Automatic annotation (TrEMBL):
L-ornithine binds at residues 160, 224, 228-229. It is an enzyme of class 2 (transferase). It catalyses: carbamoyl phosphate + L-ornithine = L-citrulline + phosphate + H(+). One of its GO terms (cellular component) is cytoplasm. The gene is argF. It is found in: Cytoplasm. The lineage of its organism: Bacteria, Bacillati, Actinomycetota, Actinomycetes, Micrococcales. This is Ornithine carbamoyltransferase. Pathway: Amino-acid biosynthesis; L-arginine biosynthesis; L-arginine from L-ornithine and carbamoyl phosphate: step 1/3. HAMAP family: OTCase. Its EC number is 2.1.3.3. Keywords: Cytoplasm, Transferase.
Length: 309
């Protein structure tokens, strides 16, 4: 059965746990799974720029025995001359999976509709689910099982990261808090989906603008750029609206003792986070960046096994 990973809640709580356990195994024994041996190819398509996603998928697909086919949209027919659906019809006869970083979530849905191979969201305007697998793996490494832990996200809550923290952390049974000003709070339908999942997993969801109350006692403090890709025209308005949400040493002092700091990167030091925090002792951003590799390898192994079943 073909399964896709377009949003964080495309994995059930049990499935998310399975993928994360596999990621830990693949981190310990890096070359133990080679389902792409042959080699089979995986297409990795970028409509937006990338460092971590590009490198981790390229290296990960190679380590699984496969051949990564990294495609920049500007040098392909996708976008301008050819639909996502027609592109999928061409690729699915030649590759084992399609990974796509794009703008509209609807493009990914179109790509996945009826596709004969798994389609993976490598970041859209709405979600960044591969990043959240890496983040949860990192939380597990530093704090143990994420279930029952509290994570607070400060900043642009209507971004792909804000939305993915809601869905993925609720799936993991975490208490997720989004601290964002009115106008930058997450989409109501995503909050509702996260609340529904949290009710099943024992987690909880809070969205608000009372920064002190939301940060108090959090085990994990996270933020993201205030100016996501595609939002560059709104830069000054966003800086003005979000400046109170910067993660500072004072913010970290309000969190739980032993709290960790995460950031998906790239970061704008002095804007969403102070250098003293992101480069400080509570920051685990380099583990988080490395874990993109292990988490995505596990995801691909899992999706390919489902496709072969
Ligand atoms: N975090 C992340 O997705 O980084 P890149 O934009 O460099 O891929
Ligand atoms: N929210 C950011 C994430 C970058 C990995 C963006 O979309 O640009």
């Amino acid at each position: 059965m073909i399964r896709h990973f377009l949003r964080d809640d495309d994995l059930t709580p049990a499935e998310q746990r399975e993928v994360l356990e596999l990621a830990a195994v693949l981190k310990r024994d890096r070359f133990s799974a080679r389902p792409l041996e042959g080699p089979r190819s995986v297409a990795v398509i970028f409509d937006k720029t990338s460092t971590r996603t590009r490198v981790s998928f390229h290296v990960g697909i190679s380590e699984l025995g496969g051949s990564p086919l990294i495609i920049s949209t500007a040098s392909s027919q996708l976008g301008g001359k050819e639909t996502a659906s027609d592109t999928a019809r061409v690729l699915e006869r030649q590759v084992a999976a399609i990974v796509w970083r794009t703008y509209a979530q609807s493009g990914l849905e179109e790509m996945a509709h009826g596709a004969l191979v798994p389609v993976v969201n490598a970041l859209s305007d709405d979600f960044h689910p591969c990043q959240l697998l890496a983040d949860l793996l990192t939380v597990n490494e530093h704090l143990g099982d994420p279930a029952g832990r509290t994570l607070v996200f400060l900043g642009d809550g209507e971004s792909n990261m804000g939305h993915s923290y809601l869905l993925a952390c609720a799936t993991a049974g975490m208490h997720v808090r989004i601290a964002a000003p009115v106008g930058y709070q997450p989409r109501a339908d995503v909050v509702a989906d996260a609340e529904r999942i949290a009710a099943e997993t024992g987690g909880s969801v809070v969205v608000g603008d009372d920064i002190d109350a939301l940060v108090a006692g959090a085990d994990v403090v996270v933020t993201d750029t205030w100016v996501s890709m595609g939002r560059e025209d709104e830069k000054q308005r966003r800086i003005d609206a979000l400046s109170a949400y910067r993660v500072t040493e004072e913010t970290m002092a309000e969190a739980a003792e032993g709290a960790i700091f995460l950031h998906c990167l790239p970061a704008d030091r002095g804007y969403e986070v102070d250098a003293a925090v992101i480069d400080g002792p509570q920051s685990v951003i380099w583990d988080e960046a490395e874990n993109r590799l292990h988490a995505q390898k596990a995801l691909l192994v899992w999706l390919l096994a489902k496709a072969a079943a």
